[in-house]
Amino acid sequence: MQEQAFEKNDSVRCRVCPQGCTLREGQTGVCHARANLGGEVRPLNYGRLTSLALDPVEKKPLARFMPGTYVLSVGTFGCNLRCPFCQNGEISCARIADASAPGTPEGMQLPEVVFTDVNGRTQRIRTEEYTPEELCETALYYRDRGNIGLAFTYNEPMVGMEFVRDTARLVHEAGMKNVLVTAGCITQEALAEVLPYIDAMNIDLKSFRAETYRELLGGDLETVKAFIRTAAEDAGTHVELTTLIIPGENDTEEEMREISTWISSLNGDAGKDIPLHVSRFFPRHRMTDRDATPVETVYRLADIARERLSFVYTGNC
Fold first, then answer.
1. Range of the domain at 190
2. Which DSSP symbol is given to 34?
3. Taken in order 193, 195, 196, 201, is the CA torsion positive or negative?
4. Going by C-beta distance under 8 Å and a sequence separation of 6 or more, which residues neighbour residue 291?
5. Rounded to whole angstroms, what are the CA distances from 176 to 58, 192, 260, 265?
6. Would you give per-residue pLDDT tens digits along the chain (317 residues)?
7. DSSP string, 229-296
8. Is residue 292 part of a domain?
9. Are 241 and 277 in contact (CB under 8 A)?
C-alpha cells in the first residue's frame, strides 16, 4: 500500500485544503475525492485517471518553461472548489459511486465514478487505473515524441496529492520534469509534500476579492495567495499564473491593477517577471447565462497588467 500523506488522526480532519472537512467513517469531503476510511483520510482517486493526453507545454498554459516541448497530461477526478464556470466540470465534480469500497480486492471491479449534471442526470465517467510506476513508464515511452515528463491537470490534482507526490518522485528519478496545474486553494502542509518534485506550476488566481472566492467559488483567497507566494519563493519551481476574466465578476481595471501590483511584489523584484495569462471566459457548466468576455476587455486588462509585469499573455482570444 502506498504511503499516506498524513499520519492517522482520530479526529479524521482532512488537512489538504482550507475546507478542513471533519469526516465520519465512510464520509466523503467537499472535494468528492477524499474520505474517512478506517479512521484516516484517504484519497479515493489514487491512480484513477479520467484523462491522459500528450499536450504542448504552452497549453497548460506555460509560456516561458521549455517552450516547443510536449508534456504528458493526466487528470483524475474531484475538486475542492465549486466554480460555476468550470471547463472540466464532468471530472472536477465527479464522485465515486461507493466511497466505502475504494480498496477493492485485486480482481474485483472498482466502484464507478459518476457525474450528475445541472438537470439531475447521472452519467458514468470512464477511468483507467494506473500505478505511479506505470504512469512514469508511460511518460518515458513518449520521450521520443518530445515529452518532457508529466503534467498533473484537468481537475484539481492536489485533492489527490498522494498520487501526485508518489508519481512525481519517480518521474524525477527518471530524469524528467513535473508540471502542476492547480487552483492553489491548498494548505501549506499539503504543498510541502509535493513542492520538492515540481518543476513548473500554473496557478489560477481567479479573483482578488475575498468575497468572490468565498461566495462564488467556495474557496479562500488568502490560502491561494499563500500557496502562490510559497511556490514563487521556491528556487526550483517555475511559476506562471492565470486569471480568467468573467464579465461582472473580476473584469474591472481596479481589480486587475490590484492583481498585477500584488504579483509584482512577490519574491522581491523577481515578482514582476512572473508570467500572467489573462484569459477569456466562455459560458460553461453552471454559468451559461453570461456572454463570453469581449476580446477587447481581455486586451485592455492585459495592457493594464503590463504596467507592472514584464510578461503578460492573452488566452482564448
1. 48-89+126-315
2. E
3. positive
4. 247, 283
5. 17, 20, 32, 31
6. 344 444 444 678 999 999 999 999 989 999 999 999 989 999 999 999 999 999 999 999 999 999 999 999 999 999 999 999 998 888 898 887 765 555 544 444 567 887 776 677 777 888 999 999 999 999 999 999 999 999 999 999 999 999 999 999 999 999 999 999 999 999 999 999 999 999 999 999 999 999 999 999 999 999 999 999 999 999 999 999 999 999 999 999 999 999 999 999 999 889 999 999 999 999 988 888 889 999 999 999 999 999 999 999 999 98
7. HHHHH-TT-EEEEEEEE-TTTS--HHHHHHHHHHHHTTTGGGGGGS-EEEEE---BTTB-SSPPPPHH
8. yes
9. yes
- Is residue 100, in this structure, part of any structural domain at all? no
Whether the CB-CB separation of 231 and 239 falls below 8 Å is answered with yes
CB contact burial 88-107 (16+ within 10 A = b; e otherwise): bbbbbbbbbeebebbeeeee
C-alpha cell at 219: 474557496
In a domain? residue 31? no
The CATH number for 68's domain is 3.20.20.70
* Distance (Å, whole) CA 313 – CA 317: 11
CA distance 203 to 219: 14
- Report the side by side order of strands in the sheet with 238-245: 51-56, 70-75, 147-152, 177-182, 200-204, 238-245, 276-280, 312-315
Contacts of 13 (CB under 8 A, 6+ apart): 20, 21, 22, 23, 41
Beta bridge partners of 73: 53, 151
Three-state DSSP at 222 gives helix
Residue 231 in 3-state DSSP?
helix
- Report yes or no on 275 lying in a domain: yes
